[in-house]
Amino acid sequence: MTIKTLLTTxxxxxxxxxxxxxxxxxxxxxxxxxxxSGTVYDADTNTCKVVTG
Length: 53
Description:
By secondary structure, the chain is α+β, with helices and mostly antiparallel strands. The chain contains 1 helix and 2 strands. It is rod-shaped, with a radius of gyration of 25 Å. The relative contact order is 0.10. The mean pLDDT is 81.
């Protein structure tokens, strides 16, 4: 009976972990840079530059 309990517990643990990993979006989020009014984002320097002209 102990072996059945151990196997059932292991199966449930694996199923739970698999479901959690399937829904995980870690590392896939997209970050966007926003700058104040009158400035634009410069990708080369990763900063906001004042718009002239």
